[in-house]
Amino acid sequence: MKPTSTALVILVSTALSALAHGPIDHGEATLIAQASVTPANNTGQPSTTAPSAPTAPNTAPATAPGATTNDDGVRVTVLGYHDFSKIKTPTEMLISTGKFRKQMQAIKELGLHVISMEDFIAWKRGEKKIQDKSVLITIDDGWKSVYTDAYPILKEHKFPFTVFLYTNYIDGGASALTSAMIKEMQNNGCTVASHSISHPYPATVKAERAKGSDEFATYLRKEMGGSRKELEKKFGGKVNAYAYPGGYVTGEMLPIATECGYECLFTVLPGKTTLATSNFTIPRYVILGTHDYIFRNATSFSATSTTAATDGAIVQSTPHPVKPEPGALITTRLPTVSADLSKVANIDVESIVMRVAGFGKVPATYDAASKTASWTLNRRLRSRTCEVSVQWRTLGATKYEQPMTWIFRIDREAAYQPSSPIAP
């Protein structure tokens, strides 16, 4: 059985470069691009196919039946994960287990409130109150690593979570979740939700749509309704949440979703959810294993009349030691920035380039004894965060290695305090 999944893909390299600077997203949903991800072969390793923009629901009602449009000021960020590994190289689809652990710890330290799908839906119905800055954790497809890697961490933190399963992949082989694993997780905070029967790619859905309205409706009832019935039969309870495979949604899906019994349907477009958000197109931040800024954006909340702003968590790691460390909070606005490159073999020291946000390329110096590149800022930092990148070539190479990039934070209030007591 072939595993399939979804992911955000940055289409244009220039856009990727700009986005890599990690713009803070305080909740405005921004469409970057969307693509279906499918395995290139039967090994289960995903590869990207041609990207396709999502179709706007052309017949979508503003809200699902039972939803309320009253604004209670609450914002929810929905996180979407896929696969996890302790040893594999991270990809868009796969996040390292260590980084996932750090992200869960960051949620806890930020004081965000992790809620279950049941509480989320009850809140959308207007039946239950939840706290502002809540987090809903979702995981797509049903990879075995959900059980082996993510589940122990979620259980340790007592964080509820939801798995969006496509039924053809359950018990589908060595990389897939088994029914027994799913049932065990259900006893410890896991909610089962639907991701269709076959996880069809957008091209497949478009081909079915081209056959005519009646044929398309039959197809949708099979994928959406059939999966719900099978999940409820196998795992019990009510399955009333659905994640669009590939985030691909058409207007025809919405009345059929209601007919099938779904109340909340999730996309792959980032943004915060409020009571006014359509239940048919609920945004999610799909957390890619290679782009740290998405988690930062997901955990950022702007200030309101009743709550202070929350700067998103910076969960990063660099292949070589750097200072200030990724995510570190410093109290000086004139820090020395450095990268220990002693483990880089055959580095061409003349090629080392350091860039600091707001300063551009800076005249970093290289200390041959410590094999460290460093630069002390000559102008006070004004922002609460600062991004640094260091890049180099190896001897004889014509191309630069991938830049090593990290972000640290500045405690501006502390930086303004006098360094010695003021005389009375």
Can you characterise this structure?
Helix 8 links the parallel strand 11 and strand 12 (264-266). The strands form six sheets. Strands 4, 7, 8, 9, 10, 13 and 14 form a seven-stranded mixed sheet that branches. Helix 2 runs parallel beside helix 4 (145-157) and helix 7 (213-235) packs parallel to helix 8. Helix content is 24%, strand content 24%. The model is unreliable at 1-66 (pLDDT under 50). It contains ten helices and 23 strands. The longest helix is centred in the middle third of the chain and has 23 residues, at 213-235. The protein has helices at residues 13-19, 97-110, 117-125, 145-157, 179-186, 202-209, 213-235, 253-260, 293-298, 412-415; strands at 5-7, 35-39, 46-48, 76-81, 83-85, 94-96, 113-115, 134-141, 161-165, 190-194, 241-243, 264-266, 272-273, 285-286, 322-323, 329-330, 336-340, 347-356, 360-362, 365-367, 372-376, 385-394, 404-410.
- Straight-line distance between termini: 76 Å
Structural class: alpha/beta
What is Rg?
23 Å
Taking the sheet with the most strands, its summary is: 7 strands, mixed
Number of helical segments with 4 or more residues: 10
For the secondary structure, the number of strands is 23
Mean pLDDT: 84
